[in-house]
Amino acid sequence: MKKNLSLIVSLILLSALLLVGCQKEDGKTGETDKDIVTLDLWNNIAAGRTYFPILIEEFEKNNSGIKIKLNNVNVESSEAEYQAAISDNNLPDMFTTDAYTINEFVELGLVHELNDLFPEKVREEYTDGVFDVGNTMVGDDVYLFPIYKGGTYMMFYNKEVYEELGIETVPKTWEEVMTVGKEIYEKSGGASHGLLFGGQSGWLVNGVVQLMATEASPEAGYDYANGEYNFATVGHVETMEFFKNLLDNNALSPLSLENDSTVARELFTSGKAAFLLDGNWTGQLLHESEFENWGVVPLPTKDANGKQYGEFRLGSNDGMYVSKETKNWNEVKIFMEFLRENIYGEILKDGEPLIAKDSAAIKVELPFEEVNDIADIFLNMSIRVPNPIVLNPHTQEVRTEFLKNAPDESIGSVTMGYLTGQVKDLKGTLQKYTDDYNAEFTKAIDGNEHVTKEDYKFPNWVPYQSYTEENYKELNR
Q1: Known SUPFAM superfamilies for this protein (predicted)?
Q2: Mean pLDDT of the chain
Q3: For a disulfide at 389, which of 5, 134, 216, 284, Cβ 3.0-4.6 Å?
């Protein structure tokens, strides 16, 4: 009996040891649930829904003690979700959002500095300007993990429409857009138009008109030399009149007035127009929709040698933040070090060239050849402009207060009003908009004891040239 009992006990112990061994073998390590650290990542970048799962899976293979819980936040409701998390002091470990600017996040004490991740030597691997104050930095500290480097707008063309109608010229100037647009309308019997854009997407119209206006009026939008806003410029007027002339001559599709950017893109791929004005991300979206027969060129200029420029400036949604209240900084740092070495290549594979690093230095197979064209257009269009925050951080407080009370009208809404006939006096409307905008701007400045109008003036600004650290030093402020 004792022998049988001893045998039974021995068998039980052996079974237990085998079970433990199997558990360790299946899990590769001996971690229990208590040993695993879970990091929350909230993402509201559309393309991130594709590349973040791939990166997370790869990371977790080699870091079994860290799990990443990805929450793809709905863009429409994201601001409310983030504000609720802030109110409850419950921000996720890592997050992407444009709910606040970098200065606001830092001022509110909500984000963790990332200096260890981006020492000076690492910063040298990134595009010039990415680590400027106001982009990823506040003062001497890095707070935003840079993923992208902003964006711009360009003109896509449908090669199928060209082939079907025997069109040979891809327009570069306003005159060519008119000529080719009328030719397309006539040859297609009205089935296709030359130009199309999503007019119901106000941000798109605002961005395109603003860029095109800088050719005739480099001070269009904001006059850096005089420190004031200016929307009543020759450039703005001429650009809006250009679109109206296209519409009146059947070179601009009237569908532009009725649809947003998403529908406009679908109409473009179905052959309703030969040219589409949209953002740099459109190439990636066209590729995902399996429409491959397209090309891309810069926005058309009035003159053959005309110049346009846009601000090289990162927004909050161009990168990722870490919550200052994270309880897992060491694990967050391990994950972000992995991202720093791997995320840019994955984004390029997805077809988005405007990564914060030089895309040419990352050796991956591009999904479509126009990726490099889009990157080149961005580099030629985007320049570093003066930023008051660099010299006086309190100007961010003015900007926050100003935007709360700024007129609801925009360049985009004025343009659409003019195209639909609701705006009759274009110059007068633009002047009133400018006056109202500057009135609120001045009011916000006067309400801050740490800021004066001089903080916004950069008399050494040269249009179409990047504003450098040396330029800031020349001001002696």
Answers
A1: Periplasmic binding protein-like II
A2: 91
A3: 134
- CA–CA dist 445, 388 (Å, integer): 12
Is 7 among the domain residues?
Answer: no
132 and 221 inside one domain: no
- Regarding whether 119 and 247 lie in a shared domain, the answer is no
Tell me the residue type at 93: D
| Residue-wise pLDDT tens digits, 402-442 | 988 999 899 999 999 999 999 999 999 999 999 999 999 99
Q: Are residues 183 and 99 in the same domain?
A: no
Task: Give the span between the Cα atoms of 401 and 122, in whole angstroms.
Answer: 35
Total of domains in the chain: 2
How many CB atoms are closer than 10 A to CB 200?
A: 18
pLDDT tens for each residue of 221-236: 999 999 999 999 999 9
Domain limits at 403? 152-311+394-477
For residues 306 and 321, membership in a common domain is answered with: no
Name the residue among 427, 407, 411, 403 with its Cα closest to residue 214. 411
